[in-house]
Write a structure and sequence with these properties.
alpha+beta
Length: 376
């Protein structure tokens, strides 16, 4: 929807304050956990983005480079926008045990899938509710200019959420909040209404750098500095090519994303649970073994990941990631001889039908096992 100039009624300070209060109530009714408002000015964040891109830290995420100018200038994305309504939605389902997640990562034959991706695709969940939210606003005040977003356009949503007061930037670059830790999704509605803005929160990381120390690939190169090219989430999701050999062993059994920096964060001890069924774990992704997921055909992959963010990476990248996990399992002394033989056989059986990308990772996995055997 195109943005239009706000009416005099909308511009009234009293009316704006009343609307602001109503927005908070309505957001809660729609399942959002917090709502804050900011203007569209990004300050020095745009310069930091340009520096990050110039260093090549975005890797193969070419879309960040292509749309860098728009990403750094919200007014170019949505001309006429005056405010950004920023919302958060918790995704940690009640059956998630964060301590047990560590045990899963340490179990070589188990598949570790990032918590946020085990339920329904958050893009769809948030977008639908944001559209419903915008329609409710329109019913209350009449036609106005708006556009909704949730990780779906060149928008610096974490920076806008920080500026709005939804949380502060952790040293891992994710947004942190006292009540929700970092286990929440973000959404935005850009509007042409001059609503009152909220203040940013103070940072509460102090001297803690647990997220930096725990990162398996040292992707957090300094506080608030992330090199995506080293990040397991990037490597397993955004990266379309082979996993660089120097990072394969560090991946362990992480086959889609990586939660280490969030699991170690003290603030996630206070993370609130989501009651939305959309984010409940599906298809046993919290407990599945590497071999179980490896056994899925492409048809099964597409069917079971219907409506899931995981389906976006496609079957080949999924198999690539699993092959690395299986290779690391073969190299682990924790794995029994019986499991080792099952993994070897499953990998060998798959070579003939594998595409070039997957075949290269299968061969690596089997060679890792061979090198381990030769040392024994």
């Amino acid at each position: 929807m195109s943005l239009s100039a706000p009416s005099s009624d909308q511009a009234s300070g009293k009316d704006a304050a009343t609307l602001r209060a109503w927005l908070g109530v309505k957001a809660t009714e729609l399942g959002f956990d917090d709502l804050r408002i900011t203007d569209t000015v990004l300050g020095d964040a745009s310069q930091k983005l340009q520096e990050w891109l110039a260093e090549g830290r975005h890797g193969h995420m070419d879309y960040m480079q292509r749309h860098a100018n728009i990403r750094a200038n919200t007014g170019l994305l949505v001309p006429g926008a005056l405010r950004v309504i920023c919302v958060s939605m918790n995704y940690l389902s009640p059956d998630i045990d964060l301590d047990a997640e560590w045990q899963g990562i340490k179990t070589p034959t188990k598949a570790s899938v990032s918590i946020y991706a085990r339920g329904r695709d958050y893009h769809k969940v948030l977008r639908n509710r944001l559209q419903e939210f915008a329609k409710a606003i329109e019913e209350k005040i009449g036609p106005f200019g708006y556009r909704v977003f949730t990780d779906s356009a060149p928008l610096m949503e974490v920076e806008l959420a920080r500026k709005a007061g939804l949380g502060w930037r952790g040293k891992h670059t994710l947004l942190l909040n006292r009540e929700s830790g970092s286990t929440f999704f973000l959404g935005e509605i850009l509007v042409d209404i001059p609503l009152p803005v909220d203040e940013p929160q103070e940072a509460h990381c102090g001297t803690c750098q647990s997220c930096i120390d725990i990162c398996p690939t040292q992707a957090i190169t300094a506080p608030y500095q992330l090199d995506a090219r080293r990040c397991i989430s990037y490597l397993t999701i955004e990266n379309p090519e082979a996993i660089p050999i120097e990072f394969r062993r560090a991946m362990g059994n992480r086959v889609y994303g990586c939660d280490d920096c969030q699991l170690i964060c003290p603030w996630n001890k206070f993370a609130k649970r989501s009651q939305l069924p959309d984010f409940a774990q599906r298809h046993g992704l919290g407990q599945a073994s590497l071999l179980e997921l490896w056994s899925w055909t492409e048809t099964e992959f597409n069917q079971r990941h219907e409506g899931s963010a995981i389906r976006r990476i496609g079957y080949s990248r999924w198999r690539r990631n699993l092959a690395v996990g299986l290779g690391n399992a073969l190299a682990s002394p924790q794995v029994s001889d019986e499991d080792r033989q099952s993994i070897q056989q499953a990998l060998r059986n798959a070579i003939a039908s594998a595409d070039a990308l997957v075949a290269e990772h299968i061969n690596w996995a089997l060679s890792i096992n061979a090198s381990v055997d030769s040392k024994d």
